[in-house]
Queue: 2 jobs
Job 1
Amino acid sequence: MAEQERSNTVPILVALIGFAGVAWSAVWTAWSNSHELEVQRLKYQQDLVLEAMRTGDPDQAAENLRFLLDAGFLTENASAIRKYLENRPSGTGRELPPR
């Protein structure tokens, strides 16, 4: 009887180890995907800032950034961007040449 119990335990143990491997793989994949989404979100916000600044005019660039902030498109470093916009004298600031 003890031999039969042992022979029943081995397949269960193998199945549990296999299940643990599959579960770990699923957790790893989910974490990896969420990390990739965060990277893509940050890149999207950076691209928005660059395009907002492609005006050749610092006042228009500032207005574009303010719009993106107010619309909720920029969440990363939003407080620093708002502070920059509040302290920026008119006619000064950063801008990029238009394409």
Job 2
Amino acid sequence: MSDYELIVSAGRVFCAVSGFDGPGAVAVKGDRIVAVGAEVEGSAWQTLDFPGDLLLTELVDMHAHPARGGGLCRPSPGDRLGHKFSNDCVDVFSHCLKSA
């Protein structure tokens, strides 16, 4: 049996909650980060190693690219960024903002 479901190590890990900033790892159990630091120990079902990358533990990317004049929730060749979203997608995003 594994201690964690996932351990992700990186060349730099930044955790605003614990104040950790340096080479290290993050351990995940269920839907929670349960350990952060230079000495995360234990076994995991899956391990990922990113030695040259920065891992930000509390970052939630909530940005969107609403399409001008409607569109679809899939890449569209007519959009220079390759992203168009339908009104349904914008409605979901708006609901998330109101719920926060």
